[in-house]
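Issue 218. Parser rejects a valid record. Input:
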Amino acid sequence: MRVCIVKATQKLIEAQSLATEGTLLSNAITAGYNKDDIEEKIVTYSEFAVLLRTPDVIAREEAEAQRRQTLQILSLHGSRFLMQSKRQPQ
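Output the parser choked on:
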């Protein structure tokens, strides 16, 4: 996998599996990046996966995990509330 990244931040600009050398640099420069600030390199799929885990992606994943945990807790407490209300005479 060939990628183009911002050197200072490791931010992924573009990735292609069949690109020829220089294609991604050319695309990034055309998009307005300074050639001295970017780098094109070949990475493994594991390294590519790391590049995809940007802070905003990590934050979204953590928020989703928290949401699932909250729903699970609410579901458990809701079940207990329903069981308690069925036991009480009306």
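Fixed in the parser; the record now loads. Residues 1-52 form one domain.
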